[in-house]
Write a structure and sequence with these properties.
The chain is α+β, with helices and mostly antiparallel strands. The protein has three domains: about 80 residues, no CATH class; about 55 residues, no CATH class; about 150 residues. The chain is about 15% helix and about 40% strand. It contains four helices and 17 strands. The strands form four sheets. Strands 7, 8, 10, 13, 14, 15 and 17 form a seven-stranded antiparallel sheet that branches. A four-stranded antiparallel sheet has the order 1-2-3-4, with no helix packed on it. A four-stranded antiparallel sheet has the order 9-16-11-12, with no helix packed on it. Strand 5 and strand 6 form a beta hairpin. The radius of gyration is 38 Å and the shape is rod-shaped. The N and C termini lie far apart (about 80 Å).
């Protein structure tokens, strides 16, 4: 271990010999020492014996650049963590170091880097869970819990038992990639009213008549029970189809009037923002309407 000021002064022959031996010792030992050399020069080496790190002076001669760790126990050279890999122009192309587990799980990192088997497993487990959730969502109807209309609670779009009558029921906004189902549970309206639906047009911000369930007209003591399915409302297409499976129930105990498998088609090229249900006269009085969604193009 030796350091030197690299200045040979005028001196006696014996002193000169000693001085030369000292400077050569400093050179061959990379100016090793527990502290940095007092006299520094651009691009000179210093082996820091305290930290066991080989360092190089920068060209401005105002800072040290750490080059690597020397493992004195194993007699081995070690690359420092977070060492950048660059091309000949100095542009980073990779990283010799670790990145957080979260970066691997979300797949947001674009820098080539070292990765541990544990982080690979964590990334696979995380994304497999998302894939399984997506698969479940794709094959089954899931409650759509956003609540934007009066009476909303527990996933219901409307619940008159809490909030009284409402003139219309408007869904939350549709999202691309899904088809939607609205389930009517013991929904009643004014006597002589017919259930109707309108779809909101994204291009004009207005409502277009979707259907009027002719024959599904309630009288005193009657209501409706069943579903309305709207496939692919966010795809711009010439015709929008709607499938209904509705029956009229009798609160008096009389036989039900079954109305099944009716389809309606709106032949106008537009995408739908949401749907609104109303009665031809009067308001919704009782019952619940649930909203569900699933991935488009999947059979139940």
């Amino acid at each position: 271990m030796a350091q030197h000021d690299y200045s040979i002064a005028n001196q006696t022959a014996a002193s000169l010999r000693t001085d030369l031996n000292n400077v050569l010792s400093a050179i061959v030992s990379n100016n090793s020492g527990a502290t940095a050399p007092a006299d520094t020069y651009a691009n000179m080496f210093w082996y820091d014996t305290t930290a066991n790190i080989l360092k190089m002076r920068n060209e401005a001669d105002d800072a040290w650049i750490s080059l690597g760790y020397l493992d004195q126990t194993a007699d081995a050279f070690r690359i420092l963590d977070n060492t950048q890999v660059t091309n000949t122009s100095g542009t980073q192309t990779g990283l010799l170091g670790d990145q957080s587990t979260a970066t691997w799980e979300t797949g947001t990192g674009t820098t080539e880097s070292l990765v541990s088997p544990a982080k690979v497993k964590a990334a696979i487990d995380s994304n497999t869970a998302d894939l399984l959730a997506l698969t479940a969502l794709s094959n089954t109807w899931h409650p759509y819990d956003r609540t934007t209309v009066a009476g909303s609670q527990d996933g219901n779009i409307y619940n008159s038992a809490v909030d009284g009558t409402v003139a219309s029921i408007e869904s939350p906004a549709f999202e691309a990639g899904y088809e939607y189902m609205f389930y009517f549970e013991q929904v009643t309206g004014s006597s002589g009213a017919t259930l109707q639906a309108q779809m909101h047009r994204d291009d004009t911000a207005s409502y277009e008549s979707l259907f009027a369930l002719t024959g599904v007209t309630v009288t005193v003591g009657q209501g409706i029970w069943g579903s309305v399915i709207i496939p692919q409302p966010k795809i711009s297409r010439y015709s929008h189809d709607v499938l209904t499976n509705i029956r009229i129930f009798q609160s008096t105990g009389a036989a039900d009037n079954i109305v099944i498998d009716r389809s309606y088609r709106v032949s106008i090229p537009w995408t739908a923002g949401k749907v609104k249900f109303t009665w031809s006269v009067g308001s919704f009085n009782n019952g619940k309407v649930f909203m569900y969604r699933r991935r488009e193009g999947i059979s139940a």
